[in-house]
């Protein structure tokens, strides 16, 4: 069975798993996420080891503004929900609804990025720069790696939307939507840990 | 092209050099890994010989102390990342899809990308010799020695960037082979019917997936420290040097199992084939492999006993390390019981495998000695450690690779390697190896430090170092004999049969040598462990097919992986020499290639039944 025997209108219920190639991609992507867990795990470990070493810079408790971080968290969590709606629309073969939800997802992603860039700029103006202390280096590396993942996700999902417009919802494009949604959820889960370990613990456990 | 395959798009087929640059065929990628791996193996070997010449006699001055540091750093880094791993990837690529009855790996494009990123990463690292700034902080690159203060040149930058780029390739390979083994097995091949080599690679791939990202983070942190003034390891600004040791060894210890488990798999295949017996204790072999991999993640701090982690940590890591001897012992006894009562054939492949067993046991015994934390305070950073890890890596892995190369060479190239020269290779390499390294145990116990570029005479080191150097020459001769063998065999006609050893047990021996592009004309039906042996014992001359003859779908070749890797290569230089525009341009090349790959659908092409026989021996 080759990928292009299907045409729109004859899609199976789960078009993302219709071909062996697509199932390989989904499995491979789960494995890749396993590797990403180790990547972020190591970054978290480095941050936890260094977070009290603030040198001459400001401490976490003085620096972090929880209301804004909470807003960013809510935006990102909502974007995860909208990407679920997109995949559900895909399962209903409703291309239009799927694309709308995907666009909302990337808009939320861009909103999150905007807040993060503002946050970093604000910290830098308060003397919390990348090279200030071990705390600042590990903070920017961990949170920045996550931000880079969000930025990559925004570009990626935009590219997928473009392909869906051009090629329609097929057994070739459906796995792309599904996998980019998996990626988006993963970024969201990482953020939940960053919110807890970096910001809440920074505020509470000082 | 038939109307039914109107979608079977015509794909441009390349020949010559372009064929090799664009190939996504796992067999050709295996050959590329083999060529690159052997090339780096020769470079690393040359470095080793120079090291040994410098240590031939006391107060020798063949190379200066700083050159010696560069030599030991590049020898270790090259041998592990650029020689041993690619040679394993060569065998994985050449054999795994065939052993599981698949037409290719799960992600042929990524497979090609993995090779090229490895290759350009390795190239970047080795270009440091020409740039006059060679990494010299040891293959472990400990801080603060590897930090900006003590290594202010670009040497360590080559290390961090080269290994990051090469590491991408390794990670992709690990994901690819896990997905391949999970999803692409032929009908009837359950997990517990997989050949032992396939099992070993499956577990190895899992180790790669979960260990390599830790190295990436460590290298990124070191790079940020060196290039962008971060403070991860800069103690003056709150950084922590021990953190590097932890991150490095959280990767580094699983890495040594990434190296040895495939060798275990090769030995299992070769011992079983040439004893003409089913592998003894197959299930316990699988279990032992899984257990070694699991424990491999729990023991990293045994490299850091003298760092001062305290008695509780040292005690726990001691015990966990000693535990690994149990599943390893299970494997050793299984091989012995497989040999026991078998009608053993002694050829080069089986000699290397049989030579492996006692050699690896010796490496294992010194491993248990080193696992005892109080005793390790005596052994630490002496030649005893050097002897230990060369016994497990050369005596284990390299003997395993030689065994596997002689065993699968006819399957890869259609020609059996010359047996006489093979035996010369084995005996010179094997004797040379023990001569080089056995005596180093005693050098270490007498107190000779590792990584010193010379020593004073009259301490009892002189004769032992002399003998060790002569042994290294013998290993060099053995390697040269192997290279000569390759060229002699190359000139011979391609006449190996499907099953050149006549005792083949697994699926790779049911198809032509070398296999056609599509491997299996019909996917075979697997009816038990040792699938091919089982059919032979029942008097069959071929596997039962699981599908009718039909059109075979193949992925298209692509030049994109090559350019994506070049992009990273350029970006590496840009970062290193502070030309961020160059770095950005390099990354842009890679990202644009990724976008092209995503936007342009790869429909592949079909090989029709009437063309399939033409392709054999193509």
Automatic annotation (TrEMBL), chain A:
Family annotation (InterPro entries): Cyt_c/ubiquinol_Oxase_su3, Cyt_c_oxidase-like_su3, Cyt_c_oxidase_su3-like_sf, Cyt_c_oxidase_su3_a-hlx
GO molecular function: cytochrome-c oxidase activity
Main subcellular localisation: membrane
Entry keyword Metal-binding: no
A single GO cellular-component term on record: plasma membrane
Record's keyword terms, sorted: Cell membrane, Membrane, Transmembrane, Transmembrane helix
Top-level taxon in the UniProt lineage: Bacteria
Residue ranges annotated for the Heme-copper oxidase subunit III family profile domain, each copy included: 27-203
Membrane topology category: Multi-pass membrane protein
Residue stretches spanning the membrane: 27-48, 68-87, 99-118, 138-161, 182-202
GO BP annotations listed: aerobic electron transport chain
Subcellular location field: Cell membrane
Family: Belongs to the cytochrome c oxidase subunit 3 family.
Protein name: Cytochrome c oxidase subunit 3
Organism for this UniProt entry: Cohnella phaseoli
Automatic annotation (TrEMBL), chain B:
Species this chain originates from: Cohnella phaseoli
The protein's name: Cytochrome c oxidase subunit 1
Domain Cytochrome oxidase subunit I profile: 14-527
Protein's job: Cytochrome c oxidase is the component of the respiratory chain that catalyzes the reduction of oxygen to water. Subunits 1-3 form the functional core of the enzyme complex. CO I is the catalytic subunit of the enzyme. Electrons originating in cytochrome c are transferred via the copper A center of subunit 2 and heme A of subunit 1 to the bimetallic center formed by heme A3 and copper B.
Protein topology in the membrane: Multi-pass membrane protein
Keyword Iron-sulfur: no
Source taxon at top rank: Bacteria
Family: Belongs to the heme-copper respiratory oxidase family.
Enzyme class per UniProt: translocase
Residues annotated as signal peptide: none
């Amino acid at each position: 069975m080759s990928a292009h025997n299907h045409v729109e209108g004859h899609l199976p219920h789960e078009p993302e798993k219709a071909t062996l190639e697509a199932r390989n991609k989904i499995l491979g992507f789960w494995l890749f996420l396993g590797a990403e867990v180790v990547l972020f795990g190591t970054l978290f470990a480095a941050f936890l080891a260094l977070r009290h070493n603030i040198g001459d810079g400001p401490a976490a408790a003085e620096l972090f503004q929880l209301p804004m971080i909470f807003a960013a968290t809510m935006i990102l969590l909502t974007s995860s929900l909208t990407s679920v709606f997109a995949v559900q629309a895909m399962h209903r073969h409703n291309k239009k609804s799927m694309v709308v939800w995907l666009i909302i997802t990337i808009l939320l992603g861009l909103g999150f990025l905007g807040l993060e860039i503002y946050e970093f700029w604000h910290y830098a103006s308060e003397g919390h720069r990348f090279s200030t202390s071990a705390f600042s280096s590990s903070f920017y590396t961990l949170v920045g790696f996550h931000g880079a993942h969000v930025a990559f996700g925004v570009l990626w999902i935009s590219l997928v939307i473009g392909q869906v417009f051009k090629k329609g919802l097929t057994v070739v494009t459906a796995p792309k939507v599904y996998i980019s949604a998996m990626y988006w959820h993963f970024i969201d889960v990482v953020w939940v840990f960053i919110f807890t370990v970096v910001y809440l613990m920074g505020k509470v456990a000082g | 092209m038939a109307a039914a395959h109107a979608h079977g798009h015509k794909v441009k087929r390349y020949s010559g050099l372009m064929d090799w640059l664009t190939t996504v065929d796992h067999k050709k990628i295996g050959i590329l890994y083999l060529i690159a791996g052997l090339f780096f193996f020769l470079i690393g070997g040359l470095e080793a010989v120079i090291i040994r010449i410098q240590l031939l006699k006391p107060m020798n001055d063949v190379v200066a102390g700083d050159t010696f540091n560069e030599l030991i750093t590049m020898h270790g880094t090259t041998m592990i990342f650029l020689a041993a791993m690619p040679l394993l990837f060569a065998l994985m690529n050449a054999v795994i899809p065939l052993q599981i009855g698949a037409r290719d790996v799960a992600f042929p494009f990524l497979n090609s990308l993995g090779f090229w990123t490895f290759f350009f990463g390795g190239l970047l690292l080795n270009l440091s010799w020409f740039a006059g700034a060679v990494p010299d902080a040891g293959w472990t690159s400990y801080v603060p020695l590897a930090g900006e203060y003590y290594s202010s040149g670009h040497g360590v930058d080559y290390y961090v960037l080269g290994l990051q780029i090469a590491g991408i390739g390794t990670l992709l390979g690990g994901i690819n082979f896990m997905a391949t083994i999970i999803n692409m097995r032929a009908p009837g091949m359950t997990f517990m019917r997989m050949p032992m080599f396939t099992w070993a690679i499956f577990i190895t791939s899992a180790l790669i997936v979960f260990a390599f990202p830790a190295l990436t983070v460590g290298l990124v942190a070191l790079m940020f420290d060196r290039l962008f003034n971060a403070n991860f390891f800069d103690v003056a600004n709150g950084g922590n040097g021990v953190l590097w040791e932890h991150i490095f060894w959280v990767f580094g210890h699983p890495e040594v199992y990434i190296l040895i488990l495939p060798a275990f798999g090769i030995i299992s295949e070769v011992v079983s084939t040439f004893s003409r017996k089913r592998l003894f204790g197959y299930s316990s072999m699988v279990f032992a492999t899984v257990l070694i991999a699991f424990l491999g993640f729990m023991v990293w701090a045994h490299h850091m006993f003298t760092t001062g982690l305290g008695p509780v940590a040292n005690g726990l890591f001691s015990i966990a390390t000693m535990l690994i001897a149990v599943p390893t012992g299970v494997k050793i006894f299984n091989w012995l019981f497989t040999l026991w009562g078998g009608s053993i054939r002694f050829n080069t492949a089986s000699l290397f495998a049989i030579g492996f067993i006692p050699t690896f046991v010796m490496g294992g015994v010194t491993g248990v000695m080193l696992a005892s934390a109080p005793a390790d305070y005596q052994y630490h950073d002496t030649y005893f450690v050097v002897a230990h890890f060369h016994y497990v890596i050369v005596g284990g892995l390299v003997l395993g690779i030689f065994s596997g190369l002689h065993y699968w060479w006819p399957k890869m190239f259609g020609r059996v390697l010359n047996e006489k020269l093979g035996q010369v290779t084995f005996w010179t390499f094997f004797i040379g190896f023990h001569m080089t390294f056995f005596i180093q145990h005693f050098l270490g116990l007498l107190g000779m430090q590792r990584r010193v570029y010379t020593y004073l005479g009259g301490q009892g080191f002189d004769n032992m170092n002399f003998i060790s150097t002569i042994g290294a020459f013998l290993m060099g001769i053995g390697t040269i004999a192997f290279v000569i063998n390759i060229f002699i065999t190359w000139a011979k006609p391609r006449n190996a049969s499907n099953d050149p050893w006549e005792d083949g047990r697994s699926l790779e021996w049911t198809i032509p040598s070398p296999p056609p592009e599509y491997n299996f004309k019909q996917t075979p039906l697997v009816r038990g462990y040792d699938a091919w042996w089982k059919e032979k014992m029942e008097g069959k001359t071929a596997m039962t097919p699981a599908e009718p003859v039909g059109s075979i779908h193949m992925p298209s070749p692509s030049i994109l992986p090559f350019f994506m890797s070049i992009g990273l290569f350029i970006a590496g230089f840009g970062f290193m020499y502070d030309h961020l525009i160059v770095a950005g341009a390099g990354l842009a090349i890679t990202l644009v290639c990724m976008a092209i790959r995503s936007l342009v659908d790869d429909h592949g092409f079909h090989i029709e039944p009437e063309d399939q026989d033409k392709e054999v021996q193509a």
